[in-house]
Every structure is written in structure tokens, then in C-alpha cells.
Amino acid sequence: MNIYRIMLANAFVLIVLGVYGFFDSGSPTALIAPAIGVILIVLAFPIKNENKTAAHIGVGLTLIAAIMFFVTGFMRNNMIVIVMAIFTTLALFMYIMDFKRRKQEREG
Questions:
Q1: Integer Cα distance of 95 and 19 in angstroms
Q2: Can you tell me the distance from the alpha carbon of 25 to that of 56, in angstroms, rounded to the nearest whole number?
Q3: Is 10:93 a contact under the CB 8 Å cutoff?
Q4: Given pLDDT bands bounded at 50, 70 and 90, which one contains residue 1?
Q5: SS3 50
Q6: What is the pLDDT of residues 38-88, one digit of tens each?
Q7: N or C: which end of the chain has fewer CB within 10 A?
């Protein structure tokens, strides 16, 4: 699977669950996840065209988001945020695996 597809899937999950969390709680901080999702969607298109800078920015943002979601989810015992953390961590793992595969293809 291509990295931009993984990024789009993760962005979709963040947007849907973040908007649901906003309507469920009414807290404007619930819109942080959809904002991250929109940024990831914007970054996915340059990544599709093999833009390495956008890929690294996307991975860094995903790492920060995963840490933030885990900390917030466990502090508040919020299952929606924990689910977002799990999806974001899986996406991060898949990004790293794709980077490793590409490096092996270049070297071998």
C-alpha cells in the first residue's frame, strides 16, 4: 500500500472521529484531530508525487499526533481518542515500514 493512501485513510479516521467527538462533547478542542486530518490530506497529494519533504513532515506530524492522542486519551479515559491514537500509531508504523522498504530498494 502506498504511503499517501495510508495517510488519507488515517486523515479520514481523524476527521470522522474528531467531528463525532466534537458533537458528542461540544468541546472545541475535539477539533484538533480533524485539523490534523486536513493537514494530512493536504500533504498526501505531494507525497503521491514522491515529495520527500512532505512525507517527512507528514510522518513527524503523525508521530506528534500519536503521542498527543495516547496521553490525552489515557488521562481523560476517552475511548474515541484512544482509538484515534491506535489508528495513528498503526499509520506511523506503516510509514516507517514503507521508508525501510524504499531504502532497501535503493540499495539493492
A1: 25
A2: 33
A3: no
A4: low
A5: coil
A6: 999 999 999 989 899 999 999 999 999 999 999 999 999 999 999 999 999
A7: C
